[in-house]
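Practice problem 4.
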């Protein structure tokens, strides 16, 4: 058997959170729920062996708040502070740069590295121009490391935009879903998706999210 087939698989996973000023009233909930997500994932050996995780936030700027890591090596999570505008272009550009750094490092560990998965949660519209080009570069089929992108929107997010910033699935909160319920549902879905993916040894694309409606994808690579 080829050594390639005996390697354990690794899914580089990016959790991307909108931390603009519109999220300020839900800042504590976001931090608390993310802590619960981390604690649950950290207690799952199956997920820990399969997924390496990075956490990214964006407002006026985009920032890697947790570098790509084995969940077992992460001692604690930073606290998000929500302020500023919603700069989509900055985060798409950062993700492409970060993926180009992270994948070679993971390959060097001897694992079979799968295509990255990016999960984006946003509650608003982009406030910058040029974000479409930045997303096109991130999702470019000619770039061998282009990720699978799953997007969740609530608050002032709109279907027309969400469908343009996802490559595998996009969801928008239903009218009756409060922001607090939406945040909890999104993080719960991220958790279930990673657990299901670890069991299947490959990314499992979510098909439904409680309190959300699936959005038709408009992005064409």
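Answer key:
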């Amino acid at each position: 058997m080829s050594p390639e087939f005996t390697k354990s698989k690794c899914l580089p996973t990016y959790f991307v959170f909108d931390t603009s000023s519109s999220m300020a009233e839900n800042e504590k909930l976001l931090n608390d729920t993310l802590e619960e997500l981390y604690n649950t994932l950290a207690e799952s050996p199956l997920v820990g062996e399969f997924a390496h995780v990075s956490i990214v936030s964006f407002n006026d700027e985009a920032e890697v708040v947790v570098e790509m890591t084995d969940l077992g090596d992460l001692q604690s999570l930073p606290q998000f502070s929500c302020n500023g505008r919603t700069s989509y272009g900055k985060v798409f550009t950062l993700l492409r740069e970060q993926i180009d750094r992270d994948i070679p490092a993971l390959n060097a560990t001897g694992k079979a590295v799968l295509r990255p998965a990016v999960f984006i949660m946003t509650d608003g519209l982009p406030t910058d121009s040029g974000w479409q080009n930045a997303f096109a570069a991130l999702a470019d089929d000619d770039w061998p490391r282009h990720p699978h992108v799953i997007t969740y929107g609530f608050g002032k997010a709109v279907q027309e935009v969400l469908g343009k910033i996802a490559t595998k699935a996009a969801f928008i909160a239903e009218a009756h879903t409060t922001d607090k319920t939406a945040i909890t549902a999104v993080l719960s879905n991220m958790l279930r998706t990673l657990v299901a993916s670890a069991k299947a040894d490959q990314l499992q694309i979510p098909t439904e999210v409680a309190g959300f409606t699936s959005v038709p994808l408009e992005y064409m690579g």
